[in-house]
């Protein structure tokens, strides 16, 4: 009786152990662990080494992969078509099979390393993963140009670019002119003069004379009381102008930002219903840039600078309004540089040359003496535009960040007394920027 009771308890214990041991095996059949996912590409083969001898195998879809037993414990798996399927292996002495997952990817996918990997969960290859390099993403994507692929990857890292721009316009001007005047007045109503009298007439009887060049330097000689006067006017002018603007543009990778330093001029335009409306056209210094973040330290920048100015010498009349023409200089280029590096755009040069000669026909062409019968003017205007662009990868400042004093804060709080205003005026340098404002690098 005791032996029979012990036997029944032993049978129950064995049944309990088998039941607990079978539970994880059934769960493994539903979702195989990551070490049981086998990646194969179309047309390639993978050798699978197993821990025990294999009794038989079964593949869910024979159009996607094939499994061939080459030895007691080795399988040769061949990728036949893009997709995913299951592989079940029955080992000798084991009742339940072991489940594997076969993911067959298009050819060329073995080069996906590091940030990217392929997933076949939906039966269509999906490229998933994160990367900070747009160049490596394009290289991985080009492997599947002729094959279906779902691109579910993401670009991480800073995606905002701040471009610090310095716009410099240099204007050089050179002017040379010379003119002569000789006059004779007999004291009555008869006057005689040779040369350029400038913007007015020459009067000898009262001792006054308008020089040949009103803006030039003149030498006047003679005796006005006797009616003899002469003048030589000459001018040489060299000018230099320097204009500087320092805008700072912030934009997302792949988006455009525009800067304009200039204005707009109105012109009449006829609408579709025949009415006259007023429209505006921009002119001045314009810069459009489009940054693309390639990786954590490389930026591709598409830059399109343009310089336009009003030209009234070629203006037209429209609706009773004089509409000027535009002189335009523009260029368009794409460059690649590192975070914080600078490049210079130059060569936007404009030259205007004017030479004018006023003379008496025949007499003005005489050698030596002809100089007294003509006036000459030479004018040259040269402009050059230089742009220095420095892009930075930036991120917004965290919420709650405290800022230093902004430009003008000191002057806004400045309330001097009469004595302070008289003896200790506010230093103009207080309006200078004290640091970077708005973004962190």
From TrEMBL:
The keyword Signal applies. Keywords: Signal. Residues 36-104 form the Pilus formation protein N-terminal domain. Residues 1-28 form the signal peptide. InterPro entries: Bact_Secretion_Sys_Channel, GspD/PilQ, T2SS-T3SS_pil_N, T2SS/T3SS_dom. The keyword Translocase does not apply. Residues 234-394 form the Type II/III secretion system secretin-like domain. Belongs to the bacterial secretin family. This is Type II and III secretion system protein family protein. The lineage of its organism: Bacteria, Pseudomonadati, Pseudomonadota, Gammaproteobacteria, Oceanospirillales.
